[in-house]
Amino acid sequence: MIQRYARAVMQQLWSDQTRYERWLDVEIYAAEAWEKLGHIPGGVSERLRRQARVEAARVEEYEARYHHDMLAFISAAAETVDAEDAKYIHFGLTSTDVVDTALSSLLTESLDIILDDMAALRRAVQERALENRQVPVIGRTHGIHAEPTSHGLKWALWWLELGRDEERVRRARDNMAVMKLSGPVGNYANLPPAIEAYVGERMGLTPAPLSTQVLQRDRHADVICSLAILGSTLDKIATEIRHSQRTEIGELEEPFAQGQRGSSAMPHKKNPIKCEQVSGLARILRGYVVPALEDIPLWYERDISHSSVERVMLPDATSLTDYLLTQMTRIVDGIAVRADRMLENLNLTGGLVYSGKVLLALVDGGLSRDHAYDVVQKHAMAATTDRSKSFRDRLQGDPEVQAAIPSDVFDRLFDYRPYLAEVDDLYRRIGLLQEGV
To answer: Please, where are the H alpha helices in 190-304?
Structure first.
């Protein structure tokens, strides 16, 4: 991922230097395990931990000669320690024992960062939900005015969805927290399972119940799919904000910094560029789903067709997710909610949005549903095409409506407050409000 869309914490985590250092950790833990079994001389692992170093640039020099990154790494590390101790670097291991174990460590660490990001975003969304639970807004279906609702319910819905996203990511993270040190085809021919168990414990990972030369890639695909779904949730929120910031809507506005400029040609512009960025980058995140799924089938015990994909996909997907989450949190923290404009828009159609209440009141007043529908629709369509007389006024002038609906009942039909009556109970149902509040 280019630096523009990656925070420093992820750039450092996924750097070549960090990867090689994590490989070295696996190698030294394996040496410790061999020592404990009495298979190699005592003191080797202690000296390796004290003396062994690996520099990415030096690995690259060896790789240019070997065309094999693990052998390059071993040579670069071995030259920093005594020759006798160097014999026990990579003792009994195959390349992917080290690579996959270290990758699991890096990937779970990146997912822990993402889970912290998600918690911060959910807190920000929760605050907006609580602040706006009794703020009326026009609900829209098919992009068309429907009925009044609570603006806070939008935020509450997103809060719930982000919770499901968090559950998916956490489950994928836990499924990814595995490792393997089981040899070239996964049958422990060159090292006992005790080595794997020891290294796993030290790395904070669980040995996979069974593996080939590699950990099975459905685990990695699960991570990518979970992140892609999360990205779509962020895209969903960003798209709603973008629509709501349109000039003729004006209900929400993403943060606009002091001194910020919106257009090179039009000084009046305040464009939702942050949300547009979220929507755009979410497309890239979703784009990793297919290669992740295609990485699952490998030839026999393994091939390396997945390796090149993962070198790009896993750092990019996790770094991008981290960036998108922190960007969305900044948007939510600084968003402007225009409650006055929401009320303006709700009243824009002269009461058309209360047609459903009028329909029910006419049925209560003795009309058949079909006839009541025809009466309401006739006045609604007339008010839409000729705005010189509002929907409400047209209904009030209809003798049939007057006969079916008492005047005091009629007035109450054009009040948005009943549409918010159940909102607090909905908040309690989903856990955003406590009982008794």
So the answer is: 193-203, 218-244, 273-287, 289-294
pLDDT, tens digit (0-9, with 9 covering 90-100), for 391-415: 999 999 999 999 999 999 999 999 9
Catalytic residues: 142, 263
CATH of the domain at 386: 1.10.40.30
User: Alpha-carbon Rg of the chain, whole angstroms?
Assistant: 31
pLDDT tens-place string over residues 101-132: 999 999 999 999 999 999 999 999 999 999 99
What is the distance of C-alpha 265 from the center of its chain? 35
Residues 282-341: pLDDT tens digits? 999 999 999 999 999 999 999 999 999 999 999 999 999 999 999 999 999 999 999 999
117 assigned to some structural domain:
yes
pTM: 0.95
CA 207, chain centre distance (Å): 28
Overall domain count for the chain:
3
Domain boundary among 343, 371, 392: 343
> Can you state the percent helix, strand and coil of the chain, rounding each to 5?
65, 5, 30
Residue 258 Ramachandran class (φ > 0 left, ψ -120 to 50 alpha, else beta) = beta
CATH of the domain at 204: 1.20.200.10
